[in-house]
């Protein structure tokens, strides 16, 4: 790992600011002043010091968020708040979103700085199951359960959706589990049978379920077991 990259992660500063610290001879590596940003570093065996204190990489971060309506899954947006606004300055540093939700969709969002773990969540090749609670405008006709299981041909698409599983809770409320993530997919699936989605909440990704103790806008670290489910 490059020294400036290490400092950026360990001190939660930009790479540019890390290079400035090095230029000012503020950094010691194994008791020696180092000022070259590209210096190779072993973060396990090498000892890095800044202002007489040892600097270490933080523990890799994995979070689940209960996303509210009105927040976009993006780092920047000119019209809406982003999910990053719900995190503390330290926690949100270097986080990436593992599976986005529309601005009007609530529920489970996973976020991490581990690129490989993120890939295991979102890669189409992994066929990760995602479960949603759906509120409909009109009563759901049970005759469509089979069509969802066989795949639906959506508007402007040339291939049917992958099989989806429906669990009916009441006339206008149900669970749907899908294994892909087309644009506005669930809304378009129900629109294709003449219905309309009034509310949509993601409650599970793979084996990770939304923590019922999390209020809207709250987040927590994932447990070791939850993290391991995508390693």
From TrEMBL:
GO terms for cellular component: cytosol. Its EC number is 5.4.99.19. The keyword tRNA-binding does not apply. It is an enzyme of class 5 (isomerase). GO terms for molecular function: 16S rRNA pseudouridine(516) synthase activity; RNA binding. InterPro entries: PsdUridine_s_RsuA/RluB/E/F_cat (IPR042092), PsdUridine_synth_cat_dom_sf (IPR020103), PsdUridine_synth_RsuA/RluA (IPR006145), PsdUridine_synth_RsuA/RluB/E/F (IPR000748), RsuA_PseudoU_synthase (IPR050343), S4_RNA-bd (IPR002942), S4_RNA-bd_sf (IPR036986), TruA/RsuA/RluB/E/F_N (IPR020094). One of its GO terms (biological process) is enzyme-directed rRNA pseudouridine synthesis. Residues 1-63 form the RNA-binding S4 domain. It catalyses: uridine(516) in 16S rRNA = pseudouridine(516) in 16S rRNA. Keywords: Isomerase, RNA-binding. It comes from the Bacteria. Belongs to the pseudouridine synthase RsuA family. NCBIfam families: pseudouridine synthase. Responsible for synthesis of pseudouridine from uracil-516 in 16S ribosomal RNA. This is Ribosomal small subunit pseudouridine synthase A. It comes from Paraphotobacterium marinum. The lineage of its organism: Bacteria, Pseudomonadati, Pseudomonadota, Gammaproteobacteria, Vibrionales.
């Amino acid at each position: 790992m490059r020294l400036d990259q290490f400092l950026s992660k360990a001190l939660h500063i930009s790479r540019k600011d890390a290079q400035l610290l090095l230029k000012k001879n503020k950094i010691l590596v194994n008791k020696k002043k180092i000022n070259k940003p590209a210096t190779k570093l072993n973060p396990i065996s090498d000892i890095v010091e800044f202002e007489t204190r040892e600097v270490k990489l933080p523990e890799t971060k994995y979070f689940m968020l209960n996303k509210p309506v009105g927040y976009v899954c993006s780092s920047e947006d000119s019209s809406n708040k982003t999910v990053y606004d719900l995190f503390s300055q330290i926690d949100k540093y270097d986080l990436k979103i593992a599976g986005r939700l529309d601005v009007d969709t609530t529920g489970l969002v996973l976020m991490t700085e581990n690129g490989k773990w993120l890939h295991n969540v979102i890669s189409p090749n992994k066929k990760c199951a995602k479960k949603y609670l759906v509120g409909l405008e009109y009563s759901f006709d049970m005759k469509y359960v089979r069509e969802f299981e066989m795949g639906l041909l959506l508007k402007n698409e040339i291939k049917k959706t992958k099989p989806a599983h429906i669990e009916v809770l009441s006339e206008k409320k149900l669970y749907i589990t899908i294994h892909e993530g087309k644009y506005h997919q669930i809304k378009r699936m129900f629109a294709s049978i003449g219905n309309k989605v009034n509310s949509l909440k993601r409650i599970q990704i793979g084996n990770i379920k939304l923590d019922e103790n999390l209020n809207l806008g709250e987040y927590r670290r994932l447990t070791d077991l939850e993290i391991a489910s995508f390693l």
